[in-house]
Amino acid sequence: KIAVVGSINMDVVNRVERHPLPGETVSGLETAYIPGGKGANQAVAAARAGAQVLMIGAVGQDPFGGPLVEALGKAGVNTAGVLEKEGTSGMAFITVDAHGENNIILSPGANGRLSAEDMEAGLIGAAGGSGGAGLGGVLLQNEIPWETTAAAVRRARTYGAAVYLNPAPARKVEDEVLALVDVLVVNETEAAAISGLEVASREHAEAAAEWLLGRGVGEVIVTLGAAGVVYASKEGERISAPAFRVEAVDTTAAGDTFIGAYAAARDRGASVQEALRWANAAAAIAVTRPGAQSSIPSADEVNRWLEN
Ligand code: ADP
């Protein structure tokens, strides 16, 4: 069983010929509402990968709140831990031009009001009582208040659940928090933000991973887009797992799909090697499709895809 404590957003995506200049109005070509948010995306990815998943988060009392919870439910995520808060839901206003270049305004809404107390109540519920037994992993990102995330790291630890941290959008993470993380998943930007090192190649990523292990992280995964991932554990395991070759259409939620799929695979007892391969496959499929949650494949799809 996996719990996700994190963001739930409605992505409002507008396609335009070109981005407007300040003060200018341009006509949109098409508008789509796509459920997203890193927390919700990772929850959906883990559920589609076959894990039992509980979402702990918040939506607003606006027209998006209901559909966002519904989308999670449809993907098989238990939404008992999703609160409804006064005000707006989290929203990402995304504008994509003809070159595929995007502009994003992220409005935290209810995500910004998810408190440590909300998180505690949700995790206690998710864990099926105050003891917290039976919770295999807790997945955390950086789209809710950091104090709530840091408190969730500590709480998950007391439950004996594996702590997965994906500090995205990038931020510096306190040493005291890093020391409590079992699995840190970062892309190159996030690895650089935490370590202060330059991370622009596989060699750099390997060096950053060593730096992070030195801070007490159990396992580090640096995702490198089309170059796959670098894995390093404090037990001394070092793995380089290549990405699958696909025609990328939209890389939104690639990282989220990877993390959800990896955590689900580990939760069902897969080895690190198997889980990395499986997660790379799930993420590769996701980049061949548009949107966030809409692009995340099911376990059946991943298995069929790997057979071909
Ligand atoms: P983020 O989206 O968080 O920046 P990455 O770009 O590193 O993360 O992508 C995460 C994972 O998604 C990669 O490790 C890989 O498995 C997969 N992926 C991303 N882009 C591609 C691509 N062009 N081709 C194949 N797989 C990809």
- CATH third-level topology: UDP-N-acetylmuramoyl-L-alanine:D-glutamate ligase
Q: In whole angstroms, how far apart are the ends?
A: 30 Å
From the 3D coordinates, which CATH architecture would you assign? 3-Layer(aba) Sandwich
Bound molecules: adenosine-5'-diphosphate
Strand neighbour order, sheet with most strands: 5-4-1-8-9-10-11-12-13
| Mean pLDDT, all residues | 95
Overall 3D form: globular
Total domain modules: 1
What letter string, H or E per element, gives the SSE order? EEEHEHEEEHEHEHEHHEEEHHH
Helix percentage: 25-40%
β-strand percent reads: 25-35%
Are there runs of 5+ residues with pLDDT below 50, and where? none
CATH H level: which superfamily?
A: Ribokinase
How many strand units? 13
Helix count from the secondary structure assignment: 10
Radius of gyration: 18 Å
Q: Structural class of the secondary structure composition? A: alpha/beta
The main sheet comes to: 9 strands, mixed
CATH class: Alpha Beta
Describe the overall structure.
By secondary structure, the chain is an alpha/beta fold. It has ten helices and 13 strands. The strands form two sheets. Strands 5-4-1-8-9-10-11-12-13 form a nine-stranded mixed beta sheet, with helices on both faces. The protein has a four-stranded mixed beta sheet with strand order 3-2-6-7. Helix 1 crosses helix 8 and helix 6 (188-195) packs across helix 7 (202-214). The longest helix has 16 residues, at 272-287. The radius of gyration is 18 Å and the shape is globular. The two termini are 30 Å apart. The mean pLDDT is 95. The structure holds adenosine-5'-diphosphate. Adenosine-5'-diphosphate binds at residues 187, 223-226, 228-229, 243-244, 246, 248, 251, 254-255, 258, 280, 283-284, 287.
